[in-house]
Design brief:
Blueprint (H helix, E strand, L loop, with lengths): L8 H13 L4 E2 L3 E6 L2 E6 L8 H12 L9 H9 L6 H11 L12 E2 L8 H17 L3 E2 L1 E7 L6 E8 L4
Antiparallel strand pairs: 1-5, 2-3, 3-4, 6-7
């Protein structure tokens, strides 16, 4: 998200730190390499329930940090809205207008993207990813921090700004 005028990076980072302090670290659901909308990603083997700490944290990031988000212009809303799937178009368009992204709250899907969309030789890439991550994904994983990344220009590499530890159990 882009910061709105009047919300400094320092203020945003303070808000993220406060949010992290209100949430405890937790066990992630088991992950697997699989496809999501044409991207290879690490995803939960089953969707976390609405009350799962991962869902609560994701929802809090959207709702509690929204006052720092710059609103989208109407052209961008129309562009993104035109690409939404028909099955949930109206719901996701409402989320896009309100929160700046259509895949939040009840439409959010945790994932760690591993590829570009529709990569060449997709079946072989999936097989290699499953082999590569197999041992690591056998281990229980914990979420223990929120990381804030910055994209200095559209398409530029992401740069880690800061990590904020969640409260410990």
């Amino acid at each position: 998200m882009a910061l709105r005028p009047g919300c400094s990076e320092e203020r945003f980072l303070s808000a993220v730190a406060a949010l992290a302090a209100r949430h405890r670290d937790f066990a992630l659901p088991p992950l697997q390499a699989n496809w999501l909308a044409g991207f290879l990603a690490l995803r939960p083997s089953s969707a976390p329930a609405p009350g799962h700490p991962l869902r609560r944290l994701a929802d809090a990031c959207v709702t509690e940090l929204d006052d720092c988000r710059a609103p989208m212009d109407l052209t961008e809303i129309e562009r993104r809205g035109s690409a939404l799937p028909p099955a949930h178009h109206d719901e996701q368009l409402a989320l896009l207008r309100r929160w700046g992204y259509p895949h939040v709250l009840g439409h959010w899907r945790f994932h760690l993207t591993l590829s570009d969309r529709d990569p060449a030789d997709a079946p072989a890439l999936l097989a290699r990813a499953r082999t590569h991550f197999a041992r690591a994904l056998e281990q229980p994983l914990r979420a223990h921090a929120i990381a804030v990344w910055r994209e200095d220009a559209p398409g530029a590499p992401l740069r880690l700004l800061e990590r904020f530890r969640l409260a410990t159990c």
